[in-house]
Amino acid sequence: MTPWNLLALPPLPEELLRGLLAPLGDRVDVRVPASRDRAALLDALPEAEIVLGDWSGLLALDAAAVAAAPRLAFVQQPSVGVDGHDSPALAAAGVPLANTAGVSAVAVSEWCVAAALSLTRRLGAADAAVRAGEWPQQSLQPRELHGRRVGIVGYGPIGAACAGLFRAFGCQVSYWTRTPREDPGYTDLPTLLDSSDVVVVVIALSDETRGLVDPGRLKQGALLVNAARGGVVDQRALAAALASGHLAGAALDVFETEPLPGGDPLRDLPGVLLSPHVAGVTPEATGRLLGAVMENLTAALDGREVAHVLNGVSPILRRRFPDSPSA
Questions:
Q1: Which helix (H) or strand (E) holds 109?
Q2: Contact at 8 Å (CB) between 80 and 101?
Q3: Position 195 confidence tier, pLDDT thresholds 50, 70, 90
Q4: Within a 10 A sphere around the Cβ of 43, how many other Cβ atoms?
Q5: Residue 321: predicted pLDDT
Q6: How many helices (H) does the chain have, and how many strands (E)?
Q7: What span, in angstroms and rounded, lies between the C-alpha atoms of 205 and 210?
Q8: Residues recognised as catalytic
Q9: Among 32, 109, 141, 186, which is most buried by a count of CB atoms within 10 Å?
Q10: ∠ CA 66-104-150 to the nearest 5 degrees?
Q11: pLDDT tens profile 45-84
Q12: Beta bridge mates, 151
């Protein structure tokens, strides 16, 4: 059987990519773009049948890229987020787009709880004060997480894992997701934002969720934890809400522009925990991610259903021969 042409886009050395994909054997012909830029991506796409996506988002498949890939039969994104890829364009072309849902749920939910604890116990301020020779034992005024109302925006595997951990700390947990549920924990978004002491954002970025969370809608003195994507929260409004004292603090693992640009006001605001998009980056999560990617690629080559298809296309690959007379 003719090997499938697999275009690998992750930001890793070619030798390492080939080593990771070696278990697929001679069923795939692994290729990488000549360079990490759009021109090289478009040059490589006409022969690509399977694309292993770029988790950095630099080499995303927009509508023009999809149009440049007439043989494309499957896109496997090695991350939970698929923002940057044009899911409707892939669907219109009959190309399933799959992610690795659930692989980072433990890592990200632990980060969210750790971030909320850091904010409530004022660990950053305490550390800075002691390093500066101060001893603010009476003035620091940390709070307990126990008993706080926690609202979770998004209820996929990460949101569900967050709910379990926060409940274990004795928090009152509610959540909102785009699909209403007959569940005592489910509440509408305005009520969640208005009533929560801690708002945890873990929903995927899409056209529907861009700018979804307006920090000005949160209750006075609330804390915001964002481990989703920067675009889900209005970042300019967040800086204003923090500067005015409307919000007591924020923990951010994601930003509208990454890395966070120099001069961004979030860098200088007190009560803000900044993290370089590492909530889901642990050896354990990476191992689960690699396992999920290889399982899906193997299933695709075997003619079995691939898991976690997001755009409604059949999960069984169909090889495309656009140059054949019968195509």
A1: helix 105-120
A2: yes
A3: very high
A4: 14
A5: 85
A6: 10, 11
A7: 6
A8: 229, 258, 277
A9: 109
A10: 115
A11: 999 999 999 998 899 999 999 999 999 999 999 999 898 8
A12: 174, 199
Calculate the alpha carbon distances from 46 to 42, 49, 91, 323 in Å.
8, 9, 18, 11
Q: What is the pLDDT of residue 169?
A: 98
Q: What does the pLDDT read at residue 324?
A: 55
Burial class (CB in 10 A: 0-12, 13-18, 19+), 325: exposed
How many C-beta atoms surround the C-beta of residue 146 within 10 A? 9
Look up residue 183 and give its two tokens: 């569940």
**Residue 141: CB atoms within 10 Å:** 8
**Cα(78)–Cα(20) distance, integer angstroms:** 13
The per-residue DSSP string of 281-325 comes to --HHHHHHHHHHHHHHHHHHHHTPPPS-B-SS--SS-----TTST
Tokens for 22, please give them.
């070696």
Contact (Cβ atoms closer than 8 angstroms) between residue 53 and residue 79? yes
Q: Give the C-alpha separation, 146 to 169, whole Å.
A: 6
Q: Which two tokens stand for residue 53?
A: 């996506």
